[in-house]
Specification:
Helix content: 25-40%
Low-confidence stretches: 1-8, 345-352
CATH topology of the largest domain: Oxidized Rhodanese, domain 1
Distance between the termini: 57 Å
CATH architecture of the largest domain: 3-Layer(aba) Sandwich
Oligomer: single chain
Order of helices and strands: HHEHEEHEEEHEHEHEHEHEEEEHHH
CATH class of the largest domain: Alpha Beta
Radius of gyration: 21 Å
Largest sheet: 5 strands, mixed
Strand content: 15-25%
Number of strands: 14
CATH superfamily of the largest domain: Rhodanese-like domain
Length: 352
Amino acid sequence: MSPIHIAMQLHNKVNKEVLKQKIQEDSRPRTTLSFYAYAHIPNPTLFRDHLYILLDELEILGRIYVSTEGINAQLSVLETNWDKMAAALDSIAFLKGVRLNKAIQDDGKSFYKLKIKIRNKIVADGLNDETFDVTNKGVHLNAARFNELTDEQEQSVVIDMRNHYESEIGHFENAITPDVETFRESLPIVEEMLQEHKDKNIIMYCTGGIRCEKASAYFKHKGFENVFQLEGGIIEYARQAKEQGLENKFRGKNFVFDERLGEKISPETISQCHQCGSPCDNHTNCANDACHILFIQCPECQEKYETTCSEKCKAFNLLSVEERDRLKVTTEFNGTKFGKGRYKAHRKGEEL
């Protein structure tokens, strides 16, 4: 088989809805996991093709970003193929023994196809890595040590390195939660917020640890000396806390970037439906594809607005396909500017 023909097979051509139905009907147990690794990959395209062939043979589903600086992956793997997957990853030198973060709340049906994309960076941070030492990272903390340091509230400050729509539904006790939509946006804002805490222990956390790997090195470069990061992020913290019987300092739900959009870490619901204000922590995307904003919606509002974010989007979805295609280029919706959860319809009683 020629290299050109092989390359043409390295993506899925089956209809999205067909794939979703197929995975729902498959009764074989699956597990959702994530991992990342910073490494020098001189030819991301070649590496991407090799990795696709390895994983596709094992019926692995998921989303992976590959760049010259490393890999960031979220996968769904058949439980019967777990050892084969681990062996496949171990066959790649810089992934040998990589920490695999298993999902907390999971039926394994978090993805319906395998996508491996080449990016400039595995996490968009907007930084020039040539200006600082990315390997000079913060001190890694396990769950027990994280609890000990965060108990020292006079000497420590906890900073959430995730976005507002993530921290809105769940975060650690007493954590600073920046009102940002992207990791790139958060870095200068967090730097400013931390100036008054420069002499304290700066304790960072994120979902699985990848954002803190870069952020901790960046803030050390900016003059912060006592920088720490939660190893493995919220996912690994929850696992260790449960296994070791530790106090769980996380409140609410952990946002995840797959079909689930979240997993419960503690029983509390700390957020509200953006439409009626009732307690709710279920994210959804507006069913109006011309909007598609990410927002929190309770079951009652989901039924009332037919899984849209407003009366405007609900009415738009009732139009014919031809009429929607004509109007969507001139009509502005809550998500037109690709915002995530920031729109006026979240005020209870406001006209939607």
